[in-house]
Fold this sequence. Notes:
54% of the residues lie in helices and 6% in strands. By secondary structure, the protein is an alpha/beta fold.
Amino acid sequence: xxxxxxxxxxxxxxxxxxxxxxxxxxxxxxxxxxxxxxxxxxxxxxxxxxxxxxxxxxxxxxxxxxxxxxxxxxxxxxxxxxxxxxxxxxxxxxxxxxxxxxxxxxxxxxxxxxxxxxxxxxxxxxxxxxxxxxxxxxxxxxxxxxxxxxxxxxxxxxxxxxxxxxxxxxxxxxxxxxxxxxxxxxxxxxxxxxxxxxxxxxxxxxxxxxxxxxxxxxxxxxxxxxxxxxxxxxxxxxxxxxxxxxxxxxxxxxxxxxxxxxxxxxxxxxxxxxxxxxxxxxxxxxxxxxxxxxxxxxxxxxxxxxxxxxxxxxxxxxxxxxxxxxxxxxxxxxxxxxxxxxxxxxxxxxxxxxxxxxxxxxxxxxxxxxxxxxxxxxxxxxxxxxxxxxxxxxxxxxxxxxxxxxxxxxxxxxxxxxxxxxxxxxxxxxxxxxxxxxxxxxxxxxxxxxxxxxxxxxxxxxxxxxxxxxxxxxxxxxxxxxxxxxxxxxxxxxxxxxxxxxxxxxxx
Length: 508
């Protein structure tokens, strides 16, 4: 508004009766009135914009509010909470729960209250789904934050959610240390009720002695000294039975390093690839010890590959082309991204071919890869060639389109799915829509899938639940891959597919 007269500013409103309208008691002021107040009283006004309007004056507005709240819930699923995006994600959760609680307390309409209860239940299910490392998203920090923030408004629901996670094996007892430490470090509170609840739950299982869960807890119990010593002493003090710290340690921790976890462990796939690529890059000569390590990683990879094979059919009935963003290779998410790009290509009719998205995009053939070692060698080669180049998805898309033009084939693009896997490049709503519009070859467009591995950026405008040709995915484990390949919910919107996953979770 700087440099403009009041008359010029009012002209932007396209309303000749602006002042008369503003005199009505039911009309809210906006930026113009705020600026006028600043000028009159020589003050500074800071505006905090909540993602959801908290003032609803008419009953028919309830549906709009619910749609907005569900969009926010969807974005809590789609985004990753990492150190880089922690503040943004935390603020978004606060806004969501604030709006939800506000309406719970003020709305009298029974039907709308029932809908808000459903929304709260979906939020609880989202926490469980986010933490689940088998058929969920496998994101610890995100689940910790969602759970912690829920307690402020709904403590009983929070405790119920916590019990659901660990009674039904959605999480790991490593959370005993990491979740409690998350609260202690980020919120400077070692006596938070959630910490005490978690400690008491662990102690109750330890007291059973013969329960199979005992060994799983013992494996992760904090030691008497070190960074988690405070948690050890809290476990000891609240355990009872008049044990000394030494006796508590001997009883429950003495042999924990040799305990076998009887429950199958889901290894984050990118860790296997990262370890193998590190060996390849650091060693030119493989000693027996190094070869043994390679063999061990290959066996773990085979186990994981067998798990992936259970995700429906062996080969998709469509052409799936993964677009791989290698512009930032330093994060763990990038390794996960490469693993899933490989598995996507292995199920595609365009067999084991990956498109690296740069200004000089190239196809890479992984058909000869039979083991993790082979895959890691191939990716190491690709990384050396193109890993330092910027991701240019629009150029890559144009190059792919040109290849169809050059081939002069009559191709039904509805049979193609283009999957953009990214850990660095930011795909906001505008970027996604522009990429969709960029395809002009033929009478129809391919299906677009955007799979978010990005922990640096927080997206608050990526949701587009109305375009049936654009799918949005998130997560590190098999559920996302299963949906993408098998198309179980292909006829559903992103929102409906998301809610179907949540509705499959029972909150005990």
